[in-house]
């Protein structure tokens, strides 16, 4: 199949995208939410008219909340992020947002997280992702232990991890580029992407293993190509139906799920690409590398 034959083209495309994402991440950084940095988040929604956002910013600064960041949400709501607040400061901030008796609002959400808890969440998030990656390597190496030629089971595990790194870096890079907030929900989406992507990759690997046992060809590249042909329609159809659901969630869901569905959508697209255009072809590259060494 052309995917295995022209695999270097897909390697170049992936490399360019990954390099661009890493460049963006290092230059723009990540907009870490209060889950990781500590601080307070306040969300209010006005009943009727909403004050001018610039007026709100001015009043908040004059009230002494200089580090506060205001962001409109929906038609009549605002989200405000600032440093950790005491209850007295919390009430003062609410009074500031009222502006006058003409503007009534309801407090929809107030979260306050200390810097120690934020640092602990950041550490646990990194540990969770690292642990998932390690368990995936061990599982694939165990599941494909019966396949030793022409690529060992550890080769399958290594390729799966390369694909997963590809699938995680892309949504992180996009979030860095658009400045979206990285919170616990974002980490949850990344873990879901890891599970979704590795499932798609394992299905392709399993078809390759079956075709090796059936000896459909003595050429490993051809075996991989035919395996990809047999599984491509299934992978694309599954991803397409998943994207339809995520699309509805993004456009019709609440603001809390919008970024979550966007992360999953980007991850599903990246995962489908890596499963089809990277995972199988990388096995061919490993096989040819070992063949040249002999």
Task: Furnish the topology, listing elements before pairings.
Blueprint lengths: L1 H4 L1 H22 L2 E2 L1 H4 L1 E8 L6 H10 L6 E5 L3 E6 L4 H12 L6 E9 L1 H29 L9 H26 L2 E2 L1 H31 L5 H33 L2 H39 L1
Parallel strand pairs: 1-6
Antiparallel strand pairs: 2-4, 2-5, 3-4
Helix pairs in contact: 2-7, 2-10, 6-7, 6-8, 7-8, 7-10, 8-9, 8-10, 9-10
Supply database-style keywords.
6 strands; four-stranded antiparallel β-sheet; alpha+beta; 10 helices; Alpha-Beta Plaits; two-stranded parallel ribbon; elongated; Multidrug efflux transporter AcrB transmembrane fold; 294 residues; single chain
Structure, explained:
By secondary structure, the chain is of the alpha+beta class. The chain has two domains: 210 residues, Up-down Bundle (Multidrug efflux transporter AcrB transmembrane fold); 75 residues, Alpha-Beta Plaits (2-Layer Sandwich). The protein has ten helices and six strands. A four-stranded antiparallel sheet has the order 3-4-2-5. The protein has a two-stranded parallel sheet with strand order 1-6. A hairpin with a 3-residue loop joins β3 and β4. The protein is elongated. The chain starts with a helix and ends with a helix. The relative contact order is 0.14.
């Amino acid at each position: 199949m052309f995917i295995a034959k022209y695999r270097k083209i897909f390697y170049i495309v992936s490399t360019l995208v990954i390099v661009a994402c890493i460049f963006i991440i290092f230059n723009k950084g990540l907009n870490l939410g209060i889950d990781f940095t500590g601080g307070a988040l306040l969300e209010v929604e006005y009943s009727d008219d909403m004050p001018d956002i610039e007026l709100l910013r001015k009043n908040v600064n004059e009230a002494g909340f200089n580090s506060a960041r205001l962001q409109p949400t929906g038609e009549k709501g605002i989200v405000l992020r600032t440093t950790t607040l005491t209850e007295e400061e919390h009430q003062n901030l609410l009074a500031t947002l009222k502006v006058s008796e003409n503007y009534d609002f309801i407090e929809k959400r107030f979260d306050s997280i200390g810097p120690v808890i934020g640092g602990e969440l950041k550490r646990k998030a990194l540990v969770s992702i690292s642990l998932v990656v390690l368990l995936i390597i061990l599982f694939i190496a165990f599941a494909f232990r019966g396949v030793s030629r022409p690529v060992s089971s550890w080769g399958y595990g290594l390729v799966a991890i390369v694909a997963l790194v590809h699938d995680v870096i892309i949504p992180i890079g996009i979030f860095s580029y658009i400045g979206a907030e990285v919170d616990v929900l974002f980490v949850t989406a990344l873990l879901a992407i890891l599970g979704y992507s590795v499932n798609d990759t394992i299905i392709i690997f399993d078809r390759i293993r079956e075709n090796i046992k059936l000896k459909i060809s003595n050429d490993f590249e051809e075996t991989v190509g035919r395996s990809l042909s047999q599984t491509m329609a299934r992978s694309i159809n599954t991803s397409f139906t998943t994207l339809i659901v995520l699309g509805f969630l993004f456009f019709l869901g609440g603001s809390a799920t919008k970024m979550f569905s966007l992360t999953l959508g980007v991850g599903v697209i990246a995962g489908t690409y890596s499963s089809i255009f990277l995972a199988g072809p990388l096995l061919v590259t490993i096989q040819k590398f070992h063949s040249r060494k002999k």
